[in-house]
Amino acid sequence: MPLVIGGGPCTFNPEPLWEFFDLFVVGDGEDVVSNLAELWESCKREGWTRAEAISRARDIPGVYVPGDYEFEYSCGYVSKVTHAGKVYEDPFAVPKVERAFVEDLESAPYPEKRAVPNIAVVHDRAPVEMMRGFLRGCRFCQAGYICRPARERSVGNVTGLAESIIANTGFEEVSFLSLSSGDYSGIERLIRHSAMGFAGHKVAVSLPSLRVETMTQAIVDGIRSMKKTGFTVAPEAATERLRRVINKPISNEMVLDAVRRAFIAGWKRVKLYFMIGLPSETDEDIDAIVELARQLGSLARSSGGCKVAISISTFIPKPHTAFQWAPQASHAEIVAKFSRLRHSISGRNVELKWHNAEMSVIEGILCRGDRRLSAAVESAWRSGCVLDNWSEEFSFDRWMAALEGAGLTYQDYVAEREPDKFLPWEHISCGVSRRFLLGERDAAEKERPTPDCLVSGECQLCGACSDASSYLKKMQATQRAAERSKGVSSMGGTSRRETMGRASARKLAFPLRCKYERTGPSKFISHLEALTALGRAARQSGLPVEFSKGFNPQPRISAGLPLSTGHASLAEYVDIRVTRPVSPEKVISLMNDCLMEGIRFVAARHLFRKSLSLCALVSEIDYSVVVSLGRLAEAGHALGLGHLDESQFHEELIERLLSQRSIMVSKVTPKRRVEIDLRRFVGALNMTGVEGGKAYLGMTLKVDRNGRTARPAMVLSALYGLRENILYFSDITRMEQYYRRGGMRRPLLDVGGGLAPRGDRLGRARTRSWDGL
Questions:
Q1: Does residue 69 surpass a pLDDT of 90?
Q2: pLDDT for res 475
Q3: Confidence grade of residue 762 (pLDDT, cut at 50, 70, 90)
Q4: Which pTM does this prediction carry?
Q5: Which CATH number fits domain 231-355: 3.30.750.200, 3.40.980.10, 3.30.450.20, 3.30.1240.10?
Q6: 192-230 as b/e: b if 16+ CB within 10 A
Q7: What whole-number distance in Å separates Cα of residue 634 and Cα of residue 632?
Q8: Alpha-carbon span 715 to 681, nearest angstrom
Q9: What does the DSSP 8-state code read for residue 745?
């Protein structure tokens, strides 16, 4: 008896999905999740029915039961609502669902131990929320309204969470989350603390959503001292008139100055966000984006070959915002605006990206949709609309057909809404009053900005605060405390410059060669993803890995030849340089405690003599291959060998392949197709047995001086005359990698070791103690 529960910002208008969920959690989820977990435990213990569980869940603050409401529509608007058996002829009189709200973010729980992905994902970093809510009041931004009022975690709490998450996950980057990082009262102190606290670990720090007017030189300098991530600025519009409409009163000079400071601080690429289709937008506003892009391109060019990336998105009216009544630009209008920008913005230093216009239309329909859309959503899903966020899977025509089948048109949902009509989401309260939103709508039409409550010192009466005066006093006290602490270091101790100076003066490094296995699920991750997993495990374990110098320091973990995805290995190698002595046994133990399933360190040794890189050392690789005989019947008949038994069949095929002096095959790379002679890479090939419907082969592949070799699947393809993709189902394991010199070959682990020369001071220092941890 599962319950289907939805959450997140979309629950402030979940009506298009109401038929597919039992419950929605509206607002902050920290307390609600715990309450729902306790409810579910009681449900299983007491044996409640689904209806009983849902009935008890509706008593939890923030839980919305869509089945409690029934809506009737007239002329596209809600005309009547039934709630708990009572009919409301005036929809505005229906009882509202109140959001869940966490008043004290400082004491709210936050996950410090989280799953670490083994493949690259979009937000592949450690997120720490430093502030929730926003008071600047951008009129298009839903989060700025539904998350009011602003609440903060202290600098100590934020950095403590960041350090804990990094220690538990090994992430290379921490992102301090908020709607506007520069509005966090302790931002400069937080950056200063992070610059010193993460310097030794080479952890990058990113601050999303930096507003131009809050980007002080101290913030830029603080981020500059750390490992760099992306630098993003969001002007949204290119004219000051339109920025007043959306309540973002900044000038183009401020935008240019922020980008200039970023280039001076060392960033080579800055990203800027703009929006088209905003209320009252004209052609002059579109042309202004082109002109600002030209100025930004010129600035990037004069800053030494820097680049600006301009991202264009479509304005979509959101529920619970001042623009919730505004029309959305039609598909044709969006395409025309994009085309105008695409043909006008050019230059080597300017990169232009834009959001899919057809996707924007569907987003707008679902964003302000009502319950009538649920039939269209189900129909679209049944027709194949599943992975629609991938442009190659998205089909605008299927969505249009689904709307038509439900008796709806997309114009019904993107058109302007009448301000005196009840909107489909107005039975759900975000805390901000309808009266305030109408006032902001009127202010936008008059191009009149609304000041921040904290900046003006006066409550703007939005309705989100239960006690506005005490809230203002609390936030103002927090800001005054932050101002007093600006000149005071939060950590004392040594500055990063001094730390880096000492690090650069420390020339000793202790290299180790490590052998590890990749089996089970780890064979399905790529070579680069495996290296990322090793780096994170080293950081998580506390292994003192040396880092490279420069703007983007990387752990000094050097790998050998890549392992093909899907292949297992009993002999992968990495060279790791550590900054203080550590015994091989300690390295193995530390790494194995933190690595994913399937990756296991099995041996390690010190490198005392200067050794070639692993890629330069490897000369031969041994593989074990297991092939299902059922897949080879076709090959046997095609080659005229169907009369032979399995052993004779393989012996004949191997003899044929090895007798050839040349086997030319095509290898397709991302850039071109190249012809290679496969035969010169095949050192040995033999059959070791046939058992249980499987053939067991041994294979040795040579590696040339340039590090080139053949894939085992290529050899199998030439052997059996079958396509490589069929043979991917073979079980291929890399058994060992060798260095060959003369007539002798040795495993890579045995190369580059030995004692340091007598009288070598560095050698004596290295052999002093290997248990420094």
A1: yes
A2: 62
A3: very low
A4: 0.81
A5: 3.30.750.200
A6: bbbbbbbbebbbbbbbbbbbbbbbeeebbebbbbbbbbe
A7: 5
A8: 9
A9: E
